[in-house]
Every structure is written in structure tokens, then in C-alpha cells.
Amino acid sequence: MPQNLEQLCGSELAAGGARDLAEVASRVAAEVLETMFFAEAVPSACSHTWLGAAVSVRIRFEGSHSGQMRLSASGDAADSIACAFLGLEPAEITGPLLEQVILELANILCGAILSQLWPESKLALGAPQIDSREPLANEPSPGQTLHRCFELPEGKLAMWIQGCEAAG
Q1: Residue 125, domain CATH
Q2: Which of 13, 20, 96, 158 is deepest in the core (most CB within 10 A)?
């Protein structure tokens, strides 16, 4: 079981605190969603009642730091993001297309956030995968993660970065 974020990333946190890491993650996520997916994402209070019907993705990373990022998008948010990214009408979005766009969103977000958190690190991202586990298993314990929820005009998005052990 991973230690909490403060223990895993102690040196990074000593300089700026967990709040700074969360602010970086929030800023980068909002920038990526706006520039690549034409969606305005505003950090919001967390209410995870919608996770059971969400499209969820997991992507692992390793290298100088290791862990995983999880991303969940409500159905309406996923539909809107897919339409905007692909330039298609809602009727043209199939289940596989929607999943591919959410997988790509997770890949882009994970790379962008990690490169901002640890710019001098050497990291390799695994292939993003649809996470079909039970909804409660999709929500790691807050003490083990960097977590943010976002409100989009069309729905909700939640993101967790779990573990960030520095290789020793």
C-alpha cells in the first residue's frame, strides 16, 4: 500500500506544499482541456456520486517517479469532450470513439501534469486503459493521492495522481 503523498514526495512538498502540487495539477488540467478539448474546466468541490456512471481511465507512469493517474468523466462531459476534440456531431460519436478520446485526454493530461511537477525527471507513461472496476474502487483514499475535481459546462471530471515515489 503506498504511503501518503507527503511521504512519497517529501522533498517536493517541503518547498511548496501539497497545495502547490494541487494548484499545478489544476492549472495544467484547465489549460489542456481548454486548448485541446475546447472545454472550460473549473476546479470544484468534490461530490463523487456520479462516478458509478463515469467513463474512467487509468494510466501508469514509471522512471524517476512512479505511480498512476486516474481520470473519470461524467457521461455528458465525455460526450462533449469527444465531440469537440474530433469535430463531430453527438450522433456521430460511437462508444469506441468516445473511449479513444478519453484515453487520449488521460495520456495528454498525465504527461503535461507530470512534466510540470517534475520537469527534470525521466518518466515513461504506460498505455492508458479503460478502468472498469467498481466505482468505489475508482476513488483512492485522499491521503494517498493528489486529487482534483472539475466542473465543466457539460458535466464533471475527477482526476487522481496516486503515488509518486522518487526512484532511489
Answers
A1: 3.40.1550.10
A2: 158
**pLDDT at site 37:** 87
Q: How far apart are CA 110 and CA 140, in angstroms?
A: 17
The strand pair at 145-152 and 129-130 is best described as: unpaired
| Euclidean distance between CA atoms 73 and 55, whole angstroms | 5
pLDDT band at 10 (very low <50, low <70, confident <90, very high): very low
User: pLDDT tens, 45-95?
Assistant: 888 888 888 999 999 999 888 889 999 999 999 999 999 999 999 999 999
**d(C-alpha 160, C-alpha 144), whole Å:** 9
**CB within 8 Å of 111: residues ≥ 6 apart:** 125
Cell of 139: 476513488
Residue at 102: amino acid letter: I
Q: Which domain holds residue 53?
A: 5-166
Structural domains in the chain (count): 1
Alpha helices (H) in the chain, listed in sequence order? 5-8, 10-37, 75-86, 95-117
Of 140, 138, 134, 115, nearest to 61 by C-alpha is 115
Torsion of CA 11, 57, 22, 157, to 10 degrees: 180
Instruction: Please give the Cα distance from 120 to 115 (Å, whole number).
Output: 8
